[in-house]
Design a protein that fits this description.
The complex is a heterodimer of chains A (340) and B (202). Chain A contains 12 helices and 4 strands. With 340 residues, chain A is mainly α. In chain A, 46% of the residues are buried. Chain B has 202 residues and is an alpha+beta fold. The chains are: A mainly alpha (340), B alpha+beta (202).
């Protein structure tokens, strides 16, 4: 679902590296050649790719939590089947992405433990609640829509194993997004209360999605290792602009109002006013928009979002409660499950 | 919603001890019964039975799949990854056991089953596979002993289920979505919006 955020930025990316090998590595990337297992790579690249794939994998499995809550409450059997399939897909994506990092030298168990202990992070958007079915529709339409835009570019990156995994994942993301579109369209074709519920969910998720692509780029973003080494191929701001250009007119055509909202500590909207900046600039063809609250973004990624503690608590519960199953599968020893 | 999800668990102390990773497996799927096995992804599993089960549940369900082939990651032997197509060579011979050959057309692309060779060891298998399959069109040759490849059997339950699975495919929604958008916006606006879709899968 999620798409990777900014890869880990090395402070001194090339210090101590063989200059000849480094030059060859960078020339290879500049020529559009993929990096494959066994190729020489600078340590900063290896660490950056481990971090990027790990962050992406973490986001996939945590992202399954808010959606999993709605499987039992989906409004129809088809929606229930689709949501179950989507959650299965997301966890599968996480497994595939962990493997990319494993191949670069970090064990899966280490990654799972780092996630639980907070040593590594995941996408901020999964730290918000999904109180209504319309929130699930918005996650699949807006967040998965943003993820697809991001992941299409990640599939043009340089690291072969990650690119192949992106291509496989994007096949399923296409279903997630179309299903979300269908849900939003159905709700906005429905009753007054369905439309009101959808507007409220849109208010909750629009600014969160604007933040999905990460903070504003540094002025030298395109020359930094992440883009020079094609770990990512498009800047945050460029992706965000393309997202708004696509979804703002679509939202307005659906009858949704694009609001600037204030939220409480639980992630619920306390006030909303129409974003007067949100319109198409006929000169550039781009949509202008009010910047999201970046203080909120940094607050959430530092652990102080509405659901951070709860997500990690549930993750740790699953890890500890599942230990006896892992032991049984691995060693054939079956002990009494721990008390809940 | 399950009450379990409302609870905020309190975990005093450190995480219990971790464990080493399970064995790594590469997974390939066949779209047609007589088609080549195409790389699909990876999984971790303690043994072949569980690996095949996981492969069926994940990789056998996300697109049409008539067969699955898996092997342990350690079982593969690769040639170099050429920036240009790798040279073929002239190694030949028919001694030894059977090896399954996979070829990667270009860096960044997936490995696809190309055929088999016979050889007494991995290095010879790679060399003979290059001669046979690296005809100026592949960047990497991979071999795996046939005995180390595990496949689903034809008499197993159909991996691709017989009921309507359009609920989990993009193409199961695209026609309806198009029709619903028509209530809200013009076709040209919808075309512009849809240009960002991942079209391969509709």
């Amino acid at each position: 679902m999620s798409g990777a955020a900014n890869p880990v930025q090395p402070l001194c990316p090339c210090e101590g590296e063989d200059p000849e090998k480094l030059a060859q590595f960078e020339q290879r990337i500049a020529d559009g050649v993929h990096i494959e297992p066994g190729d020489w790579m600078p340590e900063a690249y290896r660490m950056g790719m481990i971090g990027m794939a790990e962050h992406h994998a973490n986001s996939e499995i945590i992202g399954a939590l808010p959606e999993g809550e709605w499987i039992t409450r989906a409004p129809s059997l088809r929606r229930k089947l689709a949501l179950t399939a989507k959650v299965q897909d997301e966890v599968g994506h996480g497994q595939m992405l962990y493997r990319v990092s494993q191949e670069l030298g970090k064990s899966r168990d280490h990654m799972l433990r780092d996630l639980i202990t907070g040593n590594t992070k995941y996408h901020h958007c999964f730290n918000y609640p999904a109180p209504t079915w319309a929130d699930i529709a918005m996650i699949q339409w807006l967040i998965d829509g943003a993820a697809i835009m991001n992941q299409k570019t990640l599939a043009e990156g340089a690291y072969g194993p990650y690119v192949r995994t992106m291509n496989r994942i994007n096949m399923e993301e296409a279903f997630h997004f179309k299903s979300g579109e269908d849900m939003v369209l159905t709700l906005m074709s429905g009753t007054k209360s369905q439309k009101a519920m959808t507007q409220e969910a849109f208010d909750r998720w629009w600014s969160i999605t604007l933040m999905f692509f990460g903070p504003h780029d540094k002025p030298d973003a395109e020359s930094r290792p992440a883009m020079r080494w094609r770990m990512k191929v498009e800047t945050n701001n460029s992706l965000r602009q393309r997202f708004v250009n696509r979804f703002a007119p679509a939202a307005k055509d659906l009858g949704l109002i694009i609001n600037v909202c204030e939220k409480d500590a639980n992630g619920f909207v306390t006030s909303a006013r129409e974003d007067e900046l949100c319109r198409c600039d006929d000169t550039t063809g781009n949509w202008t928009f009010t910047d999201p609250d970046w203080d909120e973004f940094f607050r959430v990624i530092r652990g102080n979002g509405p659901c951070n503690a709860h997500r990690l608590s549930l993750r740790r519960f699953s890890y500890e409660q599942g230990a006896w199953v892992r032991n049984a599968v691995a060693h054939g020893a079956v002990n009494t499950p721990p008390a809940a | 919603m399950s009450k379990r999800r409302d609870i905020m668990y309190d975990f005093p102390g450190d995480l219990p001890g971790g464990k080493p990773d399970d064995a790594h497996w590469a997974v390939y799927t066949r779209k047609k019964e007589d088609g080549p096995a195409r790389w699909a992804g990876y999984l971790d599993a303690v043994d072949v039975t569980l690996a095949l089960q996981y492969a069926r549940e994940h990789y056998g369900q996300d697109e049409v799949c008539t067969g699955i082939l898996i092997h342990r990651h350690e079982a593969l032997a690769d040639s170099e990854y050429g920036v240009d197509p790798i040279a073929g060579g002239d190694a030949s011979g028919d001694d030894g056991e059977a090896w399954t050959v996979f070829a990667q057309r270009r860096r960044g692309m997936i490995h696809i089953e190309a055929g088999t060779v016979r050889a007494p060891d991995a290095a010879t298998a790679v060399a003979r596979a290059r001669s046979k399959f690296a005809n100026g069109k592949v960047s990497n040759i991979r071999v795996v002993r046939e005995a180390d490849c595990y496949q689903t059997t034809p008499d197993e339950l159909a991996i691709w289920r017989n009921h309507d699975m359009s609920y989990k495919l993009a193409r199961g929604y695209s026609k309806d979505v198009r029709a619903k958008w028509a209530q809200f916006r013009s076709r040209s606006d919808d075309d512009r919006y849809a240009s960002e879709d991942i079209k391969d899968h509709y």
